[in-house]
Design goal:
- The protein has 2 helices and 16 strands.
- With 217 residues, the protein is mainly β.
- The protein has one domain: Neuraminidase.
- The strands form 4 sheets. Strands 1-2-3-4 form a 4-stranded antiparallel β-sheet.
- It is globular.
- The N and C termini lie far apart (51 Å).
């Protein structure tokens, strides 16, 4: 099989010990290079965009894994819509789908600038969340949780911040603590390390400048 010409790569290991390298190739196709070590030892390549008949994406992918075995890749298309390429075990091997998540939002859905995305999953509520930048540099979150009617919603996480100059402006990454506290980490234009975070069960994000809080040792 031909090795994809990846632009950026994400990696993950499923609960059944499938190892995967995934990302976008130069044509914007979602490619997965994977091996299921319990079943076979030869790595294989799947072009998931060909399987789903999907349009190309731009920038980068991010991935979330769910407790029920679901795999969710997300990336932005050339219109700035967030698009998920996804699979659940109950669908059977190789039966992938692609869904425009932005189109699922009932209100006026914000579009994203392709290239800087992050994702996280909160197990207590089964919430799937993605975040990226809009054209104004605000961080937009698109999220889904069963208790909210299993619909997709969007929030601007930074538009109401008093210290907007301290918001992240480059690559971002997300982490959920053992208590369910969600955090988005990045760097501001000043070079300070900053964190947008929300308490467990809340969608109200606050901003900390970690460079100011950190004590030199």
């Amino acid at each position: 099989m031909t090795t994809p010409a990846f632009t950026k790569i994400v990696t993950y290991v499923t609960s059944w010990n499938q190892w995967t390298l995934a990302g976008l190739d130069a044509d914007g196709n979602v490619q997965g290079v994977w091996v299921n070590v319990a079943t076979f030892t030869t790595w294989r390549v799947d072009n998931l965009s060909t399987i789903t008949g999907a349009d190309p994406l731009e920038g980068e992918l991010d991935v979330t894994l769910t407790p029920w075995g679901g795999i969710r890749f997300a990336g932005a298309d050339d219109d700035g819509n967030l698009v998920a390429t996804w699979w659940n075990p109950g669908r059977g091997p190789g039966n992938w789908s692609q869904t425009d998540l932005t189109a699922q939002i009932t209100e006026a859905a914000p579009t994203l600038v392709p290239g800087q995305l992050t994702a996280w999953f909160i197990s207590d509520s089964n919430m799937i969340s993605y975040a990226g930048y809009d054209a104004n540099g605000d961080i937009i979150s698109l999220y889904w949780e069963p208790s909210d009617g299993a619909v997709w919603n969007a929030d601007n996480l930074t538009e109401d911040l008093d210290n907007r100059d301290s918001r992240p402006t480059g690559s971002i990454t997300a982490h959920v603590s053992s208590t369910g506290e969600a955090g988005i980490y990045g760097a501001a234009d000043s070079g300070d390390v900053v964190r947008l975070w929300a308490e467990p069960g809340s969608q109200e994000f606050m901003l900390d400048v970690l460079s100011d809080l950190a004590a030199r040792v």
